[in-house]
Design a protein that fits this description.
Elements: H1 2-19, H2 34-64, H3 70-97, H4 106-112, H5 124-151, H6 155-177
The structure holds fe (ii) ion (FE2).
């Protein structure tokens, strides 16, 4: 699964390379080798795609939730999608700081994300379950990428990923608690 997703990212990066140079003319010299920066940015692109997909799913559920828990869930989902919308910017800008292009289209996100999109409108309880799964998925992707960032001595990426794992694990717990 992980290997296949890495492969998909490599394809995507090749497509990008055909269109534009990877780096600006002035060389990046921050103490992380180009190969490592590329590897970390590839991982962050998957975190970005997961986060964007989860953002859209949460906003979708904010719009379409129904039932006796409407008020609670409608407002809770708004808090969550607002946080996710801010997070995608942080992740994309870290990719840019590493010297790589950030993916920014639905096509690229669909290719890179491990989170499945929904069809139709799930019942309120199923929305909660799918969001728990979504938050857990981003936490797992972030955890995988953390190892690469740590190995490359990339503290800012480790810091960003630690913050993202905290948010996703806490949100998953809060949503899971609604089901008990
Ligand atoms: Fe709204």
């Amino acid at each position: 699964m992980f290997a296949r997703r890495l492969e998909k990212h490599a394809d995507w990066l090749m497509d990008r390379r055909l269109g534009e140079p990877l780096e600006s003319k002035m060389k990046i010299d921050i103490g992380i080798k180009a190969e490592k920066r590329e590897q970390i940015a590839g991982g962050l692109s998957r975190v970005l795609a997961d986060t964007y997909t989860l953002y859209l799913k949460t906003h979708n559920f904010h719009w379409n939730v129904t039932g006796p828990m409407f008020q609670t869930l409608h407002l809770m989902f708004e808090t969550h999608y607002t946080e996710l919308a801010l997070a995608v910017d942080q992740i994309a800008e870290r990719i840019r700081a590493l010297g790589l292009p950030a993916p920014g289209t639905y096509k690229e996100f669909a290719k890179l994300s491990a989170i499945k999109e929904d069809t139709g409108v799930p019942k309120a309880e199923d929305m909660i379950k799918r969001l728990v799964e979504g938050h857990e998925t981003v936490a797992r992707t972030a955890r995988e990428v953390f190892t690469a960032a740590e190995g490359a001595n990339d503290q800012p990426t480790c810091d960003l990923l630690t913050q993202r794992m905290q948010v996703h694990e806490k949100t998953a717990w809060m949503l899971r608690s609604l089901l008990e």
